[in-house]
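User: Show me an example of a complex going from sequences to structure tokens.

Assistant: Sure. Here are the input components:
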Amino acid sequence: MNSHSGLVTRAYWMFTFAMFAACIVMLFTYTPIEKQMGLVQKIFYVHLPIAINTFVAAFVVFVASVGYLWQRRMWWDDLASAAGKVTTLFCAIVLLTGMTWARSAWGMWWTWSPRLTFSLVLLLLFVVYLLIRPSIESPQRRAVVSAVYGVVAFLDVPLVYLSVKLMPDIHPSSITLEPAMKHTLWAWFVPVTLLMAGLIRANYMLHVRERALARPEMPSAPAHPAPGVRLGGAT
Amino acid sequence: MTSREYLLLGYAIALGFMWGYAAILWLKWRRLQRRS
């Protein structure tokens, strides 16, 4: 990484961190307390942006998987793998923050409502995605199997999204927020989205670096070839 | 647990997991930089 791109990366992460700090301050000084659920409703401002970004990361897996199946370039597989890890992490956080909220608001950690069930299925699908990758040794075969699996796993995302609209669920199908609550929600989308994109990029760069280090070094050409030996050139 | 404690637990999980993972990736990157 050259010094310019290193500087940009550092500025990106510092800005993301600063945005998180600003959003936390906003949450405790500006955002009103919801009357029915009380203070715990404020989990919503981090819960929803992470949930939406889970869908975005899963969509990146889908696009990269289709891209690999179409072009057979390894960088598509690196991108799919990077996004798959972030999807798994974000999906786990959505479930855990939702459970914390549910325990306080409704007195229970979990209920088998359609959205929660499809969200758990999404998490399990991506955990399996991460488990099958290292179990396949051939990089090409791993990329093909992961790409097909990635496309199929993404099909659960519309089910998670549409479940509250199509079936009775504890999640509301639409929500009305006061202006100050809307501002807080939009503000939280910024750092969470930046962090999601940053984590996918960081993971991708690690894959590329690991691949470069794992590649065996090419034997260097002799400075003075033996008579009659041609180096390179069209034959 | 009070409503405030559940709120803090929720944010601790969300921020701790996200930034913890970012820190792990940063450490991995540094280890690879040293190897190359």
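The lines above are the inputs; the final block is the predicted structure for all two components together. Chain B is about 90% helix and 0% strand.
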